[in-house]
Amino acid sequence: MAAPPLQHGALHLTVARPRFPSATTFVGASGGGTVSSGVVQWALGTLSPGSVGQRQLTVSVAPGTANGNTVAASAEIRDDTDQSLARATASTVVRNNAQIALAMTANPDPVHPGERIVYALTVSNVGASTLTGVTLTDLVPNNTTVARIDISAPGACPFGVICLAGSTLSWSLGSLAPGLSRTVQFTAVVDTNNAPAAGTVIHNSASVSADATTGASASRDVLVAGAAGLELGIVDDPDPVAPGALLTYTLTFGNPGNGIVPATVLRATLPPGTVFVGASGGGSVSGGAVQWSIGPLAAGATGQRQFTVTVSAGAVNGSVVIKPMMYVALSYDHRIIDGQQAVLFLVRIKELMEDPATMLIN
Predict the structure, then answer these.
(1) Residue 256 CB neighbour total at 10 angstroms
(2) Any idea which residues carry the catalytic annotation?
(3) Alpha helix (H) ranges present in 132-197?
(4) Which of 32, 181, 188, 191 is the most buried (most CB within 10 A)?
(5) What pLDDT does 9 receive?
(6) 153: which residues sit within 8 A by CB, 6+ positions away?
(7) What is the spatial distance between Cα 356 and Cα 258, in angstroms, rounded to a whole number?
(8) Could you count the other beta carbons within 10 Å of the beta carbon of residue 204?
């Protein structure tokens, strides 16, 4: 359920105790959570737009709790006027003498649009007899897609290449002896087309069954931290420069995020009162600008490009050579679209931006 914008000051996250309070005992809470009037609460302070966070609490279930009972928890965020801004619930089934267990991990957390979330699902036989017909299912999380090649064997999905959000992934694991575990995994890519906003919760849930009589479930939430930006800097040398002399610009760029930026074009407009001399790294002049097709930028990747101009011999002493520059990037699914075609498309967009009048032709 979507919540209204967080526009107030101090916010408190209040987590209700399980629905059967006599069957549970508070154990602890992360992040300085304290118990007050039967609930755990945290003072979150001011939440700026796009900020995300997590808190945890742990309870113990009484040994005598009846088989099949449900331990229900609810959470709520309230602002300093005591207005409710968001709510969530979770339910856990109590199972005596469980025969099978399921655990799930998700990394990284939080994520940015375009990044890959690796989910690992571990099925364990915690009983005393061999389990047969072990079947594991998982729904592709919201705001993600999963490529068929990113599902570990013997996993399957109903689509040949890309499994969309909400589709079912399944693994037929056969038999599992007592004390043994089996781990499978899949990788989900966070959408870049209609990318989820910062603060979006990507929810994943899975279930496992065996012998058609026993089962278990697990879930994980991953937070979206907003689009990862690129970094760009420019240095001129020499400064000051004499009329008629050479002036070299060094452009340094990088991807500080954790995801790949699939296709990028670096573009630098030639300053007025200068003449282009040359550029490193295959840079070429088009429409009064130097441009480079950088291609995909891996997480942590950096690079440099240079170009040199001659300052007009008639330049007025003390005048400033202004160097405007623009970075254009394109996100696309490299599993479907060829990188070369993506770069050519981006170059065409760049050309239209340089000369918008050409969009009226044909």
Answers:
(1) 12
(2) 334, 338
(3) none
(4) 188
(5) 39
(6) none
(7) 34
(8) 22
Please give the torsion angle defined by the CA atoms of residues 41, 46, 49 and 53, in that order, rounded to the nearest 10 degrees.
Answer: -40
Q: Are 85 and 6 in contact (CB under 8 A)?
A: yes
Determine the 3-state secondary structure of 20 from DSSP. Answer: coil
DSSP code for 165: T
Side-chain half-sphere of 208: how many Cα atoms within 13 Å?
31
Kindly list the distances between the CA atom of residue 49 and the CA atoms of 44, 79, 226, 355, in Å, as whole numbers in the listed order.
14, 15, 10, 36
Query: What tokens were used for 66?
Result: 């009846």
**H or E segment and range at residue 119:** strand 116-125
For 133-155, the pLDDT digits (tens) are: 999 999 999 999 999 999 999 99
What distance in Å separates the CA atoms of residue 247 and residue 212, rounded to the nearest whole number? 75
Phi, psi of 8 (to 5 degrees): -105, 180
Distance CA 93, CA 68 (A): 6
220: how many CB neighbours lie within 10 A of its CB? 20
CA dist 148 and 260 (Å) reads 19
Please write the tens of the pLDDT for every residue from 171-223: 999 999 999 999 999 999 999 888 888 888 999 999 999 986 778 899 989 98
Select from 206, 235, 176 the least CA-distant residue to 102: 206
The residue count for the chain: 362
